[in-house]
Design a protein that fits this description.
Blueprint lengths: L11 H8 L18 E6 L4 E5 L4 E6 L12 E4 L2 E5 L4 E6 L5 E6 L6 H4 L16 E3 L2 E5 L4 E6 L5 E6 L9 E3 L2 E5 L3 E6 L5 E6 L9 E3 L2 E5 L5 E4 L5 E5 L13 E2 L3 E4 L4 E5 L5 E5 L7 E6 L2 E5 L3 E6 L4 E6 L7 E7 L2 E6 L4 E5 L5 E5 L13 E5 L1
Antiparallel strand pairs: 1-2, 1-32, 2-3, 4-5, 5-6, 6-7, 8-9, 9-10, 10-11, 12-13, 13-14, 14-15, 16-17, 17-18, 18-19, 20-21, 21-22, 22-23, 24-25, 25-26, 26-27, 28-29, 29-30, 30-31
Protein name: Putative pyrroloquinoline-quinone binding quinoprotein
Pfam families: PQQ_2
Keywords: Signal
C-alpha cells in the first residue's frame, strides 16, 4: 500500500497526501453551459446546501457536525435524486428539490474479502474522496479496504465487488461501459456490468487522483505531476513529465475538450490529444480553484487573487481580495458568474467583470479540526 489510514489516527504522510486533493471542477466541455438553475455545495464537514441560481437564495440545507467526518466527499445526480457520499461510508439519497431523505445505504466490508486473506486491521474503514459514480441504475464507489463496488440504486443490493488489496484513495471513473480505478501504482479497467477485470496499466509513480475522461481518452496524474494519456483499452497515447521537482501535486487535473490544465508550479496547459505544452503561466500563488467562465475564458482563484485568463493563457482581468472578505477556499462558475467560498464559510457571487460582489450565505459549515477544509460544487 502507498499510504495506510490508521485507526489510531492519521500518519504524518497521510495527512500530507490527503491535504493535496483539492477538488477543482476537474472535467468540463468547451461548449458554453445552458442556463443553470441550481447549485449544490458540500463541504468537508459533510454539510450540504442547495442554492437557487436565479434568485441567489437557499432552497434547502442539510447541516452536519460530526468530528469523524472531516474529509471532502462528493455527490451525483440521478433522475430526481441527489446521491451524496460521506466519509464514514454512508451514502444518502436526497430529493434534489426539497432535500428530504429518500434512503440511506451503509457500506461495509464484503464477505468476499475474507477469501483473499487481505489484512486491513490497521486501516480505518472510510470512503476517501468518493462520489457515487453512476451507470444505468447502478452506483459505483471504492473504500479504504480496497473494494470497488457496484450497488443497485433501486434496492441497494450489491451487484459485484472487486478486491484490489490496497487502500483506495480516489473514486472510480465510469466511461465507455467500463469502470476505471486508480489503485496507487496501477489503473484498472473493469466491466461495468459484471466487475470482470479487462485491463491494467502500470504507473511509474503513485497516484491518489481519480482518472478523468474526455472524447474517448483517459488522463491520470501522479502525485509528482506526471500525466498519462490512455485510450479506452489502457494503451498509452502520451506522457507528460514536468520540469519542476514539485514534490507533491496540490490538485487534480482540469480537463476540457482541447486542453489538460495542471495547476502546480503555476498553470500549464497541455494539448489533450498530443500532450504538447500550449502555454504556461508562472508565479501564481497557490491555486485554490479553476473553472470555465465562458467558452474562451478561465477563472482562477489563488490564495489572494481572482484572475481571468483567455484560452491562450493571456491575463484579461485581475482582482486582489480584501482581508475583510476572508481567505478564499474554493471556486466555481455558473451562468457567467463566479461563486467563491472562504475558509470562514462565506459564499460570494462575483460578476464576470470582477466589479460586483454579493454575499449569498455567511455560515456554510466546514470542519476546521485538522486544517484540511475543502468544498465541492455540483450544478444543473
Amino acid at each position: 500500500m502507498i499510504i495506510r489510514f490508521l485507526k489510531a489516527g492519521f500518519s504524518k504522510n497521510l495527512v500530507v497526501a490527503l491535504s493535496l486533493l483539492v477538488s477543482l471542477e476537474a472535467c468540463r466541455s468547451d461548449n458554453p453551459e445552458a442556463q443553470l438553475t441550481r447549485m449544490f455545495v458540500t463541504t468537508n464537514s459533510g454539510s450540504l446546501y442547495c442554492l437557487d441560481l436565479a434568485t441567489d437564495s437557499l432552497r434547502w440545507q442539510q447541516v452536519m457536525s460530526d468530528s469523524d467526518i472531516d474529509e471532502l466527499t462528493y455527490m451525483a445526480i440521478y433522475k430526481e435524486q441527489l446521491i451524496k457520499d460521506y466519509l464514514d461510508g454512508t451514502i444518502v439519497s436526497f430529493d434534489k428539490t426539497t432535500g428530504h431523505k429518500n434512503w440511506i445505504f451503509k457500506d461495509s466490508v464484503s464477505k468476499d474479502q475474507a477469501f483473499y486473506g487481505y489484512n486491513f486491521d490497521d486501516v480505518r474503514f472510510v470512503h476517501f474522496y468518493q462520489r457515487p459514480s453512476l451507470y444505468q441504475d447502478q452506483m459505483f464507489f471504492a473504500n479504504s479496504h480496497g473494494e470497488v463496488k457496484s450497488i443497485s440504486i433501486m434496492d441497494r443490493i450489491e451487484k459485484w465487488n472487486y478486491q484490489t488489496g490496497v487502500v483506495l484513495l480516489s473514486e472510480p471513473l465510469i466511461a465507455h461501459n467500463a469502470v476505471y480505478q486508480v489503485t496507487g501504482y496501477q489503473v484498472l479497467k473493469l466491466e461495468a456490468a459484471t466487475g470482470k477485470e479487462l485491463a491494467k496499466f502500470n504507473l511509474e509513480e503513485g497516484s491518489s487522483f481519480a482518472a478523468k475522461s474526455v472524447n474517448g481518452l483517459l488522463y491520470v496524474q501522479t502525485e509528482k505531476g506526471r500525466v498519462y494519456c490512455l485510450d479506452q483499452e489502457l494503451q498509452l497515447k502520451w506522457t507528460y513529465t514536468p520540469d519542476a521537482e514539485e514534490g507533491y501535486v496540490q490538485s487534480e487535473l482540469f480537463v476540457t475538450d482541447n486542453s489538460v490544465l495542471l495547476s502546480f508550479d503555476g498553470l500549464c496547459a497541455l494539448d489533450s490529444k498530443t500532450g504538447e505544452i500550449q502555454w504556461k503561466v508562472k508565479n501564481l500563488n497557490e491555486i485554490k480553484g479553476l473553472d470555465l467562465l465562458e467558452r474562451d475564458q478561465y477563472v482562477i482563484l489563488t490564495k489572494d487573487t481572482l484572475l481571468i485568463l483567455d484560452k491562450k493563457g493571456k491575463l484579461l482581468r485581475e482582482k486582489r481580495w480584501s482581508t475583510d472578505i476572508g481567505q478564499p477556499l474554493a471556486l466555481t462558475a455558473a451562468n457567467s458568474s463566479i461563486y467563491m467560498l472562504t475558509y470562514e464559510g462565506a459564499l460570494y457571487k462575483v460578476s464576470a467583470d470582477l466589479d460586483k460582489i454579493k454575499l449569498l450565505k455567511s455560515d456554510l459549515l466546514l470542519n476546521n479540526e485538522r486544517g484540511l477544509q475543502a468544498a465541492y460544487f455540483l450544478k444543473e
